[in-house]
């Protein structure tokens, strides 16, 4: 079988095709070597109502120039940065969003006096300039927390506890929305959340929730007890209340008058010492 090679303008078709492929791939290879990458968004997970939120968007343009940075709340754009335009920044009206233009730029946008309506998903869209116009979009959630100031209220069944007794306590968080989480600690050892209930309350500013938790703990260590109740929202906004309890040591009268429980007398080291001391005085 005879192999036939066609010619095109003095070049074989095979050679012409290789040159064409190489020319087509050059921009792609250059774009792979120098392109927009590592786009990263940093938004507060949770922030108090009425405070300032700083939303950051970092990226690596390598050898490319920046074309634009756009910020969205949900699907609506509210801020844009364009270095080739004057002024560089543009704010799009969006209810309840108060952009501090003087503090906002190519890598961040600052929101003043945040309101509960600003709770939601935020997107940062970064685009490189010509000829590639590479674009990447990243997103994150920000929760705006409405909470009353103050510490959790911690209540214990007794002011003192002895070895072997059962400690009972309850703790209630300040009202908030979303509801707070409660964590218990005894001598700085985490016990968990206890039994949780959430109580709604309607305020002029909207609905809030109080979280109430209760625990029962077997006292197995003699000495003082450090009881701590910690209230937190998304592990970002938190407060705690700590109570120190002294050991409830047996009194002399209760030992000498055991109300018929003779078995308790012989098993108590304190009772043996007091009995010996009493005998010495009688002698």
From TrEMBL:
Which Pfam families does the entry link to?
C2-set_2 (PF08205)
Query: Topology versus the membrane, per the UniProt entry?
Result: Single-pass membrane protein
Any Gene Ontology CC annotation = membrane
* Family matches, as SMART domains: IG
Q: Keywords, A to Z? A: Disulfide bond, Membrane
- The domain of life is Eukaryota
Q: Where in the cell is it found?
A: Membrane
Please verify whether the record's keywords include Cell membrane. no
Which residues are in the Ig-like domain?
27-134
Which PROSITE patterns does the UniProt record give? IG_LIKE
- Would you tell me the protein name for this molecule? Ig-like domain-containing protein
